[in-house]
Amino acid sequence: MPDSRTKIAELLRSTAPGTDVVVKGWVRTKRGNKNVAFIAVNDGSIIHNIQIVADVARFDDSLLKKITTGSCIKVEGRLVESLGSGQPVEVQAERIELYGTADPETYPLQKKGHTLEFLREIAYLRPRTNTFGAVLRIRHAMAYAIHKYFNDRGFFYLHTPLITGSDAEGAGAMFQVTTLDLNNVPKNDAGEVDYAQDFFGKPCNLTVSGQLEGELGALALSQIYTFGPTFRAENSNTPRHLAEFWMIEPEMAFYELEDNMELAEDFLKYLIRYALENCADDLAFLAKMYDGELLERLRFVVENDFVRLDYTEGIEILEKSGEKFEFPVSWGLDLQSEHERYLVERHFKKPVILINYPKEIKAFYMKQNEDGKTVRAMDVLFPKIGEIIGGSQREENLDKLRARVDELGIPQKDIWWYLDTRRWGSAPHSGFGLGFERLLLFVTGMANIRDVIPFPRTPKSAEF
């Protein structure tokens, strides 16, 4: 049977009061007097509540007493113009059914301010708050917009494996996947773990990136994108790190670095414009509660062309800035967030795409420039957050790629399949990665990455 209720988002947009409606949701507050009870109900479809007006004389007193903050109710009644300010319509209740009670002595989300730290401890309930309802609706809107953007431009959605035998980033911080008995690990004659007895017959891990497999798809389908969970076993307890997060990684055959930059800029502007046009109420709430400059910063990205800046020139700007940075600046070092934000917020006052990084600080698969020192890498830098996208043109030359792999000590036997794509029908190609939660930090104005994912996974924390 279809749901008989009307969502609150639809009721608040209604231009036809005087109709009979059914509302279902969770009680945010209840107030009133001996004659009338005013019950604010929210069903998650919109940040705003709808007011239920109940004539006390028409309802059993024991029922009304059980309707407290957090309880779940069904209301049948008439939609009428609201006499109070703040919303155009309200519902005059004719029947109320109590689905589930919430003991006010134990329900933790009473009508008062709660710290974000406290809400992380009850992540199973925090979606019921205004803040996390807004964040999760924006998260959905951004996920939809990502799929729509790529679909409308002829990209194919490729599902890359979560369990892998390769380390795309060469970082080594990977979660191991095994079915071996950890209380009785089998060993071979050399005293090493006998992976021949493991499920896959070899060491395997949770993926840190779908990029390498994504390249294989691009070298057949021309344009693909991945969008799925990735994992990093870094012991980082910071507001910017998660052990489990989502990544968007497009890969495009026949794209060189300039094409890659054009796509990244257009993609980001599309997503932020989509948020501004489709998440206005939630963004307004978050701007009011957490970040007064949020809307201005979102418009800043949409309204400005991104600067293309060579890494070497960027280092020169930073060295001549006269700023006393916490981290040193010199050619050959990776930039820190403070350096990236200086370039964006103070020097150019525009988003920046930094290109042509030293090869020593970038991954093995990036295309080498003719100077022998740099690679065709690109990082997109945003205000407040620094790097939001990292990407590159990929090395399509087999000999150069093999030489770089050997230089870094990566066993060719582990990525033989990747090397083979350069052996048969190789082509220029490029791609980039966008951390979904990093995007959401920027779009929502939240300060901690644990507050833009429903159930954050961090060191010593895997609850819910």
Give a written overview of the molecule.
With about 475 residues, this protein is an alpha+beta fold. The protein contains 13 helices and 16 strands. The chain has helices at about 10, 60-65, 115-120, 130-150, 210-220, 255-280, 280-290, 295-305, 310-320, 335-350, 400-405, 415-425, 435-445, and strands spanning about 20-30, 35-40, 50-55, 70-80, 90-100, 155, 165, 175, 205, 225-230, 245-255, 305-310, 350-360, 375-380, 385-395, 430-435. Helix 4 crosses helix 6, helix 4 crosses helix 13 (about 435-445) and helix 6 packs across helix 8 (about 295-305). The chain is globular and about 85 Å long.
In short:
With 464 residues, the protein is α+β, with helices and mostly antiparallel strands. It contains 13 helices and 16 strands. The radius of gyration is 27 Å and the shape is globular.
Number of strands: 16
Structural class: alpha+beta
Biggest sheet strand order reads: 6-10-11-16-15-14-13-12
Mass-distribution shape: globular
> Percent range for helical residues?
25-40%
Subcellular location: Cytoplasm
Keywords: Aminoacyl-tRNA synthetase, ATP-binding, Cytoplasm, Ligase, Nucleotide-binding, Protein biosynthesis
InterPro entries: Aa-tRNA-synt_II, aa-tRNA-synth_II, aa-tRNA-synth_II/BPL/LPL, Asn-tRNA-ligase, Asp/Asn-tRNA-synth_IIb, NA-bd_OB-fold, NA-bd_OB_tRNA
Catalytic activity: tRNA(Asn) + L-asparagine + ATP = L-asparaginyl-tRNA(Asn) + AMP + diphosphate + H(+)
